[in-house]
Amino acid sequence: MESVSGGDIAGLIAAGVFAVLVALLAVPILKLGRVLDELRGSIRTLADGATPLMDEVTATVTTAHGELKRVDVIAENVSDTTANVSALSSLVAATVGSPLVKVAAFSYGVRSALSQPQRGARRPGRRSR
């Protein structure tokens, strides 16, 4: 039989301690692996749910852009119509306004002439000179 030296016993103890240390560290490493697997699954689920949402947002933005183009066209038409109405009112004022002023002045003159007493007729309450 061979004799076992102190170095051999120390080597066996060190190997045993190392085996226990590896066993103790294996448990948290395995748990961390499961957590990473769950995280990967959650990210995949999130990405699968985000893709349709992004497609819907893209469609909404595209629709809104089209509607804004229509509003721009409508606003441009309103602006053109406003300019046309302004020009038309200026034309009507220039065409009809001057004759109306003349008619008003004429009618005022006629009313003034008709409301004045005739020459030679006596006004009541006044003395003649």
From TrEMBL:
Chain segments annotated as transmembrane: 12-30
UniProt KW keywords: Membrane, Transmembrane, Transmembrane helix
Superkingdom to which the source organism belongs: Bacteria
Name used for this protein in its record: DUF948 domain-containing protein
